[in-house]
Design a protein that fits this description.
The complex is a heterodimer of chains A (94) and B (712).
Chain A (H helix, E strand, L loop, with lengths): L8 E6 L4 H17 L5 E6 L4 H6 L4 E2 L1 E6 L4 E4 L5 H7 L5
Parallel strand pairs in A: 1-2
Antiparallel strand pairs in A: 1-4, 4-5
Chain B lengths: L1 H4 L8 H23 L5 E3 L5 E3 L1 H27 L3 E6 L4 E4 L1 H9 L13 H6 L9 H12 L6 E6 L8 E11 L2 E11 L1 H31 L1 E7 L5 E3 L1 H6 L10 H6 L3 H17 L3 E8 L5 E12 L5 E10 L1 H46 L3 H30 L6 E3 L1 H15 L4 E7 L6 E3 L1 H18 L4 E12 L1 H4 L8 E10 L6 H4 L19 H11 L3 E7 L3 E9 L5 H9 L9 E5 L3 H13 L3 E5 L2 H10 L4 E7 L7 H11 L5 E5 L6 H6 L5 E4 L4 H13 L1
Parallel strand pairs in B: 14-16, 20-21, 20-22, 22-23, 23-24
Antiparallel strand pairs in B: 1-2, 3-4, 3-7, 5-6, 6-7, 8-9, 8-12, 10-11, 11-12, 13-15, 16-17, 17-19, 18-19
The chains are: A alpha+beta (94), B alpha+beta (712).
Chain lengths: 94, 712
């Protein structure tokens, strides 16, 4: 019996409905649906509405995906077009 | 780039410095784009301000505009819906309503300028005087259930009468879900009055149909009358419940055509199937009485009628008809026929008494003589005389009894000449001596399939009438012969079929009848005789009997000259159709000549026109003299010949012929008449018409006469 995987908690910073942000959101959802056995908790934060929250997480560029749990914190900047980078960041590369 | 770097020579110029700063921002954005491969939309500065990059800005603007466009499109759709739609939130507060909702509010005198927007729908429902509070309590309950997530979607129908008319509405309440959580609901009210009315009408129609069907079934059962249908395309036969009962099978039975045919009594089966096949083939309707043998072996009399049903293309698709159990009527009919014969015997009673007297008088006288003489030879002679007179009397009584008691309903080959001779003898013996009875019978007469007693009854009735028409004496001529009868001759008479007929004629030299009397003589209870002398049933009974033999009666009469009755019975043997066909090849044809046919009898007009057109003529028809003149005036130069009946209303044939002769002296005219050809009227016309046709006439006679007149 393999140990139960720790709950995955992600935070995606986007800028409104702008194109790269939309792309990142769609790709993240598609990736999780395909690869995650347990649906992760995903917080979506719009920097245009909550820039302070971005500062707290030291996010400068949008879109940025932050892995909050499990530690350590990891981040991927960009529209998540590179699936390998995403898999690595989420520890799901097998 | 270098140009933009130096918009002005003066470094202290603020506008030049601003330009330079903007340029630096642009350069920074561009560098950022290059560094991140264009995957970045915004960056957050250390002061907590998010800056959108220009590409993202443009896209965002566009998407906001399209969202605005979408919203207005949704609004337009919502407003275009005929139903009244409201969107309520989780608490039941109305968020928005559509145009139909607002209009309904206005039409029903709402005083709320917001039409409920911003207030709780439950509060609206509680104010039943508010027009928005449609179907209040039920809708409120349903809305609560939907908002609480207790149910998914609800429809409620409720009455909502306007002051002018009864109305019905339906409320549909659907939850608005977000990630499975109820966030509000859409409440839709639709006016379903029309639909409710339609459904109610449909139900009423169905009920009426059911009632009428029940009524029909009751009527069928009571009248012992049912309906049937034969589908020509698939051969299926449908019998109504009563038809099933008549055949002694369970209601709902669907027999095959062979099974249905097998129910008819064997002696009539072939004839009936032929009629049926003919109707299905060329649409000839039928109406006959026959016996069926039910499933239990019991014989019943039925009357069956049928006619062809055609589709839009005039093709025969079915034969439909009615069938009635007439067994009871038949039984009464037999009783009636017997009663009428007794009546007939009654009218002979005087003659019979006289005749019996004639027989008994010599007997009585002989008895006296026997007492007076002892001579053996003389006594033997007297005894022989008594014996022969008594035999004659007994024979007479037997004849009368046979006639009065005769059995009805037996169909056998009847030698009509022998029946006629019996009738002649009875008449000769019982009629007054001043009436001379003559008999002429053609050789080799065919027999008739029928009921001997009934045929004798018909002839007896006619003879009694002839006797009564000659109170001062005269001649009664009985003749019998054979004649071919075609459709033309029948003149649309549907009770008989063309073919070879045996014709018995009873003619007298009595007082005759006026045309008005002649028209009515076959009506029951019509009589010209004094009270007590006749019941007026003789001729109507005779006509009924002859009709049941598929024959017909024709009457001719002229006042002061006499009357003649001809009875036509179908001959038992010989295929008349063949005979007529071979003859028709020799019948002269027309060459498109236009013939004006004038007759007040539609059936005669139609059959004559049909005959003429079949044989190469064109025909024009008129219903009376006046009509004929109008048509003649229109096409005077075209009309080659006028064929006119003499007896017509409005303007009779005589008057027409007078006028025609004046219009076109020497014009070709043929006069048709049912009167005796020796009538005075005809003699007066002789100079103006080329030929007379005695009605009824056959197609052959008609065509030959026309040809002769046209060629002459």
């Amino acid at each position: 019996m393999s140990p139960r995987p720790a709950a995955l908690h992600l935070r995606l910073y986007i800028a409104g409905d702008s194109p790269n942000s939309q792309m990142a959101m769609q790709r993240l959802q598609a990736f999780c649906a395909q690869h995650c056995s347990v649906p992760p908790v995903i917080e979506v934060i719009d920097v245009l509405r909550a820039p302070a929250k971005a500062l707290e997480d030291r996010v400068v560029l949008t879109p940025t995906l932050v892995r909050v749990q499990p530690a350590p914190t990891r981040r991927v900047v960009g529209n998540l077009a590179a699936e390998a980078a995403l898999a690595r960041a989420l520890d799901l590369d097998g | 780039m270098a140009d933009r770097m130096t918009p002005s020579e003066d470094p202290g110029d603020p506008s030049a410095r601003i330009d330079a700063l903007i340029q630096r921002i642009r350069d920074a954005e561009e560098e950022l784009q290059q560094l991140t491969g264009g995957e970045i939309d915004a960056f957050v500065s250390g002061t907590g301000t998010a800056y959108l990059l220009p590409n993202a800005q443009a896209e965002l603007l566009e998407s906001r505009e399209s969202a605005r466009g979408l919203a207005s499109q949704l609004r337009a759709i919502l407003d275009a819906l005929p139903a009244h739609v409201a969107l309520v939130d989780r608490e039941g507060v109305v968020l928005t309503v559509n145009q139909a909702w607002r209009e309904f509010g206005l039409a029903n005198g709402s005083t709320d300028p917001a039409f409920g927007v911003g207030t709780s729908y439950f509060a609206v429902c509680a104010r039943t005087d508010d027009p928005a509070a449609l179907g209040s309590s039920e809708v409120a309950t349903s809305l609560r259930a939907v908002l609480d997530g207790a149910t998914t979607a609800v429809s409620v129908e409720y009455p909502c009468d306007s002051p002018l008319e009864p109305r019905w509405f339906r409320a549909d309440i659907s939850p608005v879900l977000d990630a499975g959580v109820v966030r509000g609901a859409v409440v839709t009210h639709s006016n379903i009055t029309e639909r409710r009315r339609y459904i109610a009408e449909l139900a009423a129609k169905e009920r009426a149909l059911r009632e009428s069907r029940t009524l029909q079934l009751t009527a069928e059962r009571m009248a012992r009358l049912g309906g049937w249908r034969y589908d020509v395309r698939d051969g299926a036969i449908t019998w109504s419940d009563e038809v099933c009962r008549i055949h002694g099978v369970a209601p709902g039975t669907r027999p095959s055509i062979a099974e249905a045919g097998a129910f008819y009594a064997p002696e009539v089966r072939d004839t009936i199937l032929a009629k049926f096949a003919r109707c299905a083939q060329d649409g000839t309707p039928f109406d006959f009485e026959a016996q069926v043998v039910g499933a239990s072996g019991e014989r019943r009399w039925v009357r069956a009628l049928g006619e062809a049903i055609r589709d839009e293309a005039d093709r025969i698709v079915a034969v439909e008809g009615a069938m009635q159990d007439v067994t009871e009527q038949k039984r009464l009919e037999v009783q009636f026929l017997r009663a009428q014969r007794m009546e007939s015997v009654g009218t002979l009673a005087g003659g019979i008494a006289h005749d019996l007297n004639n027989v008994l008088t010599p007997v009585l006288m002989s008895v006296d003589l026997l007492r007076a003489t002892d001579d053996a030879a003389e006594r033997r002679e007297l005894l022989d005389g008594i014996e022969s007179a008594t035999r004659r009397g007994a024979d007479m009584v037997r004849q009368v009894l046979t006639f009065a008691r005769g059995a009805d309903g037996q169909r056998t080959p009847v030698p009509v000449d022998r029946v006629l001779r019996d009738v002649e003898r009875l008449c000769r013996e019982t009629f007054p001596r001043n009436i001379e009875v003559r008999l002429r019978v053609d050789a080799d007469l065919p027999s008739v399939i029928g009921d001997a007693t009934q045929i004798q009854q018909v002839l007896m009735n006619l003879c009694v009438n002839a006797r009564d028409a000659m109170p001062d004496g005269g001649v009664m001529s009985l003749t019998a012969g054979v004649r071919l009868v075609d459709a033309q001759y029948l003149g649309g008479n549907a009770d008989a079929d063309p073919g070879r007929f045996l014709v018995v004629s009873v003619a007298d030299t009595g007082m005759g009848m006026a045309a008005a009397t002649l028209d009515r003589i076959f009506e029951p209870f019509f009589t010209t005789k004094e009270v007590g002398k006749g019941t007026g049933l003789g001729l109507s009974t005779s006509a009924a009997i002859v009709k049941s033999h598929r024959g017909f009666i024709r009457a001719y009469s002229e006042p002061k000259v006499g009357s003649q009755f001809r009875v036509y019975f179908p001959a038992a043997s010989g295929s008349a159709a063949e005979v007529i066909d071979t003859q028709s090849e020799e019948i002269p044809r027309g060459a498109g000549e236009l013939i004006l046919v004038v007759d007040d009898e539609a059936s005669v007009r139609d059959i004559t026109r049909q005959t003429l057109e079949t044989f190469g003529y064109r025909a024009l028809t008129a219903t009376d003299g006046a009509d004929a003149l109008a048509r003649y005036a229109e096409r005077r130069n075209e009309i080659a010949l006028v064929l006119t009946d003499l007896m017509m209303p409005v303007m009779d044939g005589n008057a027409l012929i007078e006028v025609l002769a004046r219009l076109t002296p020497g014009g070709r005219i043929i006069a048709a008449s049912g009167l005796h050809t020796h009538g005075q009227v005809l003699r007066a016309l002789e100079s103006r018409v080329q030929a007379f046709l005695e009605k009824p006439y056959t197609a052959e006679t008609l065509l030959r006469t026309i040809r002769r007149v046209l060629d002459g």
